[in-house]
């Protein structure tokens, strides 16, 4: 049985909803990595959180990643969250994101992403989250 987003939120009232990426194609690629277990970390510019933005991830909170069209895709649980500066990113965190060959590839891709979604600077703060997939609404639970 397919669960509606409202049913999922009613059962998890603390959950935030979000989309990975900034396009349907990128979102689908990232969700495939999450579902395969290759992606267990993500990051976002810290300025997207706070009073006018999303709620900061919290360890233990379960959130719902959406398909680009708004259907529930997966539920993830935050395992750790920290703030880093752009220059503090390391190979281990990049590897946990599952999308990049190395730190140089990450820097190129994320600089372009940050420039598209609100700005990039050498000293910008980045929210770095590690997570585990709890449920795949396409039918697989963890």
UniProtKB/TrEMBL annotation:
Sequence ranges assigned to domain ASCH in this UniProt record: 18-135
Record Gene3D superfamilies: Sulfate adenylyltransferase
Pfam families: ASCH
Cited SUPFAM superfamilies: PUA domain-like
InterPro entries: ASCH_domain, DUF984, PUA-like_sf
Name this protein carries in UniProt: Uncharacterized protein YhfF
Protein source organism: Jannaschia pohangensis
Native organism taxonomy: Bacteria, Pseudomonadati, Pseudomonadota, Alphaproteobacteria, Rhodobacterales
